[in-house]
From TrEMBL:
Organism (species): Saccharopolyspora dendranthemae
InterPro entries membership: FAD-bd, FAD-dep_Monooxygenase_BioMet, FAD/NAD-bd_sf
This protein's UniProt keywords: Monooxygenase, Oxidoreductase
Protein origin, superkingdom: Bacteria
Protein's name according to its UniProt entry: 2-polyprenyl-6-methoxyphenol hydroxylase-like FAD-dependent oxidoreductase
Coiled coil: none
Amino acid sequence: MWLGDVVEHVVVSGGGIAGTALALALRTAGIAVTVVESRPADHGEGAVVRLNPNGMDALRAVGAHQPVIARSFPLVRTERVRPDGSRLGYSLGADPSSQRGLPRVMHWPVLSAVLRELAIERGAVFRHGSRVVDAEVDTPTAAVSLADGSRVEGDVLVGADGANSLVRGRINPDGPEPERLGTRTIYGYAAEPGCEPPPPEVLRSYMGARGFFAATRDAHSGGCFWFTSLHAPNPRRRDDPQRTDELRAEMSELFAGDDTIAPEVVARSERILAFDDHALAHVPRWHTDRAIIIGDALHVAPPASEQGAAMALEDGVQLARCLRDHVDPAAAFAAFERLRRDRVEAVVALGRMGTSRAHQNALARRLRNLRTKAKRYVEWQRKPPMGRGWAYDHHIDWESRA
Ligand SMILES: Cc1cc2nc3c(=O)[nH]c(=O)nc-3n(C[C@H](O)[C@H](O)[C@H](O)COP(=O)(O)OP(=O)(O)OC[C@H]3O[C@@H](n4cnc5c(N)ncnc54)[C@H](O)[C@@H]3O)c2cc1C
């Protein structure tokens, strides 16, 4: 039972997007926070990230949107084209009549650095290069033990330690693990693509013989961001290093013969990263009285949801609000779960649907193309297809009580 007055100090395991957003929001609420992160601050890993309007809304709630806007660019439209350039389908980035704004695209390491700098400016403490090896989630003082033998204690512990979360395992000893979907997403970036990528406001998917190649130009550097998705029956090992040359060779083979920008851009890409797709929709126990999990530790949405980073931001800001407004951590965690459970489970389901659509067989794909054509003539004349409205329509009212 909680006998303290207020939550004064929060310990966060994991300084990815969720942990950093939480730190930023906790400092905005005046709560002290220490983030323990195994990677060094300047690891520079990561490729491109799409931040949907709900993620931008979460940043706006804590006055952190402007630096992100300054380093990103808006996405107005996504389209699918045949190699000859004719358009198969398109959708708008977001409903232009809504107030929620457009999705933003940027380098992942830049997003991570911008949020960390803001959090530090507001007084958050980061301990980089510190691996958490154990977590006390049921004791009166929440604590983590680090690989160097030291401990960090706080009033509460938050596990923002990603899809393979150690803290999730402590809260749910027999709980579920993320399910591998049998697909893999490959992200790349070419600073000098050697050809003309689609303009920054357009994310264009070139449908090739063996896979799609989605690309856009970075409005700031002129480089080309791209990604694709593959069937991948054999899992990558968690600790497999990202071997750029091998991935480039694999991608060159995949797009060989396609009369699109793909072969040229792949050949010139200096950064290529591969991630196996996973999904985790339902974790039975989100928290104890002293510890809780957020971000990918709590819900893993496949990349097709385009919501991993945005949901991590929502989680961080909402949990800070709950800790600000409830004296008892257990009550704050219960409020967080009430606010979040239905939404995160629905977003993961949306991502799973998107992943299976991207890997439909040839017949299903032809039927889908026919449906798209029919819609173009019948429906789109009246109303253009919009982005995923309900998932984007999420607003955090920071001033109101959680
Ligand atoms: C290095 C990196 C690069 C990424 N690049 C992209 C990208 O280019 N595009 C994209 O869409 N998504 C990317 N992602 C994934 C994306 O950030 C997440 O899916 C989403 O934002 C959820 O964020 P998260 O903070 O919950 O989890 P994560 O981003 O996975 O962050 C978890 C953090 O916890 C740390 N951690 C884990 N275990 C421990 C431990 N025991 N002790 C201390 N620290 C620990 C990890 O080092 C990591 O920094 C990347 C993630 C990482 C970690």
